[in-house]
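Researcher: Let's do a round of design. I'm pasting the structure tokens now; please hold your answer until I've finished.
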């Protein structure tokens, strides 16, 4: 299959004026899988009501069948069709953070979504993205779209359309080319099937952010526990091809031939620029680091001379939890 590319960057304000927009919408309705931008990472989207469509996602990504997908919606009232909102606390969080980079795991209504979407669980993760292109596609199709990150399973999530094409060329029906994403790491996932809620995957919206809206709504999560809260967390994720090691004190690091370093710009001046990749300006620039992490990991994969990667430890920095969660996964805890 030759993957179609729809460059919609000049039509973001009103996607209905894009000449091929109907081809995209018809594709979704005909059970095709299409990569789309969101504000977190690019997603590989398909009609969540169709088993045939959702099955194609698992094949294209090489994703294990027991790892459920997030369902994307345009407006809250769509949830009613396939899930329930268990209490006012969930509703308050949705109103505060949607559209935006956060997913809520809700009790599932049976026999509406393709069962592969939820991997047979009795709950479903739901998100209303804020990205303008994603929102308009969700509105125009008016379908609940199941969309995992649009990478090959085990690769870093794509933060631009070129990353998607690296992994998915000729494996999927099409790619909607938008801009570089805003956030750069996947949405916060909050398990709302019991109260207080638990963060199943940390993201740009933190537990403190949620607590500010509904005090006491989040219980401590331990992401290192044996039994993962989110099934996806047991898989090795976001890993570059070369081994990568966390460095506690980057100021003491010495690089040998074939070694590279990923760290804030402020720490990189003493190294040869050909083997450095900046994550934000300084250690305090967590937003910048999240934005650039996956590009850095992918860049490393395109440099065959690099045999070993060192990455800075941000754990001493406030609000670094989600960033460090992804770095730990990429280093497999080394
Ligand atoms: O930002 C994002 O969330 C992106 C964009 C495309 O929206 N999507 C994304 O999807 O990251 P994915 O499939 O790569 O990650 C979904 C995560 C997995 O860790 C999965 O195990 C968890 O959400 N998940 C989904 N449904 C679940 C459920 N019912 N119970 C527990 N965890 C669930
Ligand atoms: Mg993913």
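Researcher: That's everything. Go ahead.
Model: Designed sequence:
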């Amino acid at each position: 299959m030759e993957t179609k590319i729809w460059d919609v960057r000049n039509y973001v304000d009103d996607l209905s004026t894009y000449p091929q927009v109907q081809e995209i919408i018809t594709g979704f309705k005909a059970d095709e899988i299409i990569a789309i931008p969101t504000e977190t990472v690019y997603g590989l989207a398909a009609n969540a009501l169709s088993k045939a469509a959702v099955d194609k996602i698992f094949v294209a990504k090489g994703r294990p069948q027991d790892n459920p997908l997030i369902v994307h919606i345009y407006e809250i009232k769509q949830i009613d069709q396939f899930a329930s909102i268990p209490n006012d606390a969930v509703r308050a969080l949705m109103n505060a953070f949607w559209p935006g980079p956060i997913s809520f795991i809700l009790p599932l209504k049976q026999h509406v979504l393709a069962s592969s979407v939820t991997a047979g669980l009795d709950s479903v993760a739901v998100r209303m993205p804020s990205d303008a292109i994603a929102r308009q596609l969700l509105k125009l199709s008016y379908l609940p779209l199941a969309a995992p990150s649009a990478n090959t399973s085990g690769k870093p999530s794509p933060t631009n359309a070129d990353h998607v094409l690296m992994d998915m060329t000729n494996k999927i029906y099409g790619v909607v080319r938008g801009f570089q994403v805003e956030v750069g790491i996947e949405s916060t996932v909050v398990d709302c099937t019991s109260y207080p809620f638990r963060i199943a995957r940390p993201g740009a919206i933190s537990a403190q952010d949620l607590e500010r809206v509904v005090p006491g709504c989040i219980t401590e999560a331990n992401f290192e526990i044996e039994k993962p809260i989110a099934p996806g967390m047991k898989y090795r994720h976001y890993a570059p091809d070369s081994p990568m090691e966390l460095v506690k004190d980057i100021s003491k690091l010495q690089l040998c031939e074939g070694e590279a370093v990923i760290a804030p710009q402020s720490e990189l001046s003493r190294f040869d620029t050909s083997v450095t990749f900046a994550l934000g300006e300084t250690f305090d620039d967590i937003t910048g680091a999240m934005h650039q992490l996956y590009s850095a990991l992918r860049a490393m994969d395109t440099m065959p001379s690099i045999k070993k990667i060192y990455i800075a430890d941000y754990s001493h920095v406030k609000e670094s939890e989600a960033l460090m969660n992804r770095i730990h996964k990429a280093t497999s805890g080394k």
